[in-house]
Amino acid sequence: MDVLSGRILLRPTDLDRSLAFYRDVLGLAIAREFGTGSHRGTVFFLGGGFLEVSGTAAEAGPGCADLRLWLQVRDLVATHKELLGKGATVLREPRREEWGLDEMWIADPDGVRICVVQVPDEHPMRYRPGI
């Protein structure tokens, strides 16, 4: 299989509410918009991938209970302050985890959990001595 691109497809319970969250609260840049009415959607840039928010879920529930988004940012403290100012639901305040990443958890309007991460300069993901 030769994968050229990929994206996460998210079907919210309230399309307009979720589009506003990902566009206005998280501030994700729009890659493209398509369709009209209930058949419209928006594809957001998501670092090296894409997040498509389109359609409508039949109901909120266990369909997304195990779904998590992982978003790396440059400055977690500034991002935390920015998201609080925009009314984001912060599930857990920023902190350094035992594995060395600085993380906070937020939720989208349907409760999808989003890990917002800053990789410290000295973390092995950034720096590998001797290599």
Write the layout of secondary structure elements.
Layout: E1 7-10, H1 15-25, E2 30-34, E3 41-46, E4 49-54, E5 68-72, H2 76-85, E6 89-96, E7 102-107, E8 113-118
Parallel strand pairs: 1-4, 5-8
Antiparallel strand pairs: 2-3, 3-4, 6-7, 7-8
Structural write-up:
By secondary structure, this protein is an alpha/beta fold. 16% of the residues lie in helices and 35% in strands. It is built from 2 helices and 8 strands. It has helices at residues 15-25, 76-85, and strands spanning 7-10, 30-34, 41-46, 49-54, 68-72, 89-96, 102-107, 113-118. The chain has a 4-stranded mixed beta sheet with strand order 1-4-3-2, with helices on one face. The longest helix is centred in the first third of the chain and has 11 residues, at 15-25. The chain is globular. It starts with 6 loop residues before the first strand and ends in a 13-residue tail after the last strand.
